Amino acid sequence: MLLLPSPADGRGTAITHALTSASTLCRVEPVGRWFEAFVKRRNRNASASFQELEDKKELSEESEDEELQLEEFAMLKTLDPKDWKNQDHYAVLGLGHVRYKATQRQIKAAHKAMVLKHHPDKRKAAGEPIKEGDNDYFTCITKAYEMLSDPVKRRAFNSVDPTFDNSVPSKSEAKDNFFEVFSPVFERNSRWSNKKNVPKLGDMNSSFEDVDIFYSFWYNFDSWREFSYLDEEEKEKAECRDERRWIEKQNRATRAQRKKEEMNRIRTLVDNAYSCDPRIKKFKEEEKAKKEAEKKAKAEAKRKEQEAKEKQRQAELEAARLAKEKEEEEVRQQALLAKKEKDLQKKAIKKERQKLRNSCKTWNHFSDNEAERVKMMEEVEKLCDRLELASLQCLNETLTSCTKEVGKAALEKQIEEINEQIRKEKEAAEARMRQASKNTEKSTGGGGNGSKNWSEDDLQLLIKAVNLFPAGTNSRYWF
Question: How far, in Å, CA of 352 to CA of 400, rounded?
């Protein structure tokens, strides 16, 4: 849009079309909403984009006020004005569903609506009995507006919001579902932060830097929460300056104690989260593995250095001995290589087993039922014990690249195959045991005399008798 300057006195504003064959003068009258917006921007020395933002902000605030619906407080008429300090001021004004997120425009609009509905003069005109003085419940509405319209008093009340959950999850609660338990708790407590842009808890894939920033922020948490609203003594009621000072001292001590308890609560929350965080355990294991790898590398370098010295010394010996040493070295290297290959095979199997466990854990073991999850865990462990490396890799690739349903079907199919294999092995073992039992019965009872097998007690008694009366003596038989 072309913005035209204002014409001078006695002159008009003209627009010349560049594509016309001849110049044409057109008079433009400075009226309309576009010209009005231009004049407003020029007087305010603001750009067009800034004005659009201002208009959108006003429209959004107006729409919020229009969409605001007050929730009627059922116990409003039963409230005691003298007990205003123990009342929920947001609920009194009908803002219990908005609470600390309510804007000043919404608070003012809510107060206006409550006054129009519950003012004593209006209720008196309707024939409703009114309590005299400050004993009427309308005083609670006035007091609620007084508290919430003042930013300092509102912050004091928000600090002790009766609907806020101060609970801290224990370590046992977050043993299996850490992120589901602690994420809403940190999100809930972030409202007390003096600093904006509070870092999120993240997920299992968060980097070490993000996790470090998160815990550094919460271990150095700067809270604006204060507890002046809970002061038991009011200094305005003091009769002299000394009493007022004493009340202020008592209130400061009580606030400091509550602030200390609040910071201890936050610290307990962070400590519990840190001790249960699976990412911390993962980072520690990675750091430990890195140190062990460095240690092994140094040991390997030292070993190679010693081998080089040994080879140099052996080079000075006789040719025959050198050939023998070389042959032994080759044999040893082959043994080391075979051992390394075996270790790599074990590590690969271990890695694939852990990957299978993690994949199943990511999908919550494909069930929301605790008993089914435990059963699935047992089946997964059975797969880890029975499957070979190739089968584990194939199954892990399927779980990683497919959806939850396809992965579950593949896992259940593999479980069925393993269970069928175990069943067949069990049946074969039982068959062998039955055959062995039959062979034993035939060998012991072949004479057909119906004699029974000797029990353990009978055998022990026979051994004692043979030891007491050995063969070849005249005292073996006493009849």
Answer: 12
pLDDT in tens, 177-192: 889 999 999 998 998 8
Q: Is 193 helix (H, G, I), strand (E, B) or coil?
A: strand
Contact 95, 70 (CB under 8 A): yes
Cα angle, residue 353 at apex, residues 350 and 355 outer, rounded to 5°: 110
The pLDDT tens digits for 146-176 are 989 999 998 988 888 888 888 898 888 888 8
Q: Which among 455, 425, 429, 348 is positioned nearest to 393, based on CA atoms?
A: 348
Query: What type of residue sits at position 256?
Result: A
**Axis crossing angle, helix 208-219 with helix 278-315, rounded to the nearest 10:** 130
258-283: b or e for each residue (b if 16 or more CB lie within 10 Å)? Answer: beeebeeebeebbebbeebbebeeee
What's at 266, amino acid-wise? I
Question: How far, rounded to the nearest angstrom, does the alpha carbon of residue 124 sit from its chain's CA centroid?
Answer: 55
- The phi-psi region of residue 450 (left if phi > 0; otherwise alpha if psi is between -120 and 50; otherwise beta) is left
- In angstroms, rounded to a whole number, what is the distance separating the alpha carbons of residues 264 and 276? 18
| Neighbouring-strand partners of residue 193 | 223
Q: Is the pTM of this model over 0.85?
A: no
DSSP string across 390-419: HHHHHHHHHHHHS-HHHHHHHHHHHHHHHH
d(CA 226, CA 215): 23
Task: Determine the residue type at 339.
Answer: K
* Distance, CA of 153 to CA of 431 (rounded, Å): 84
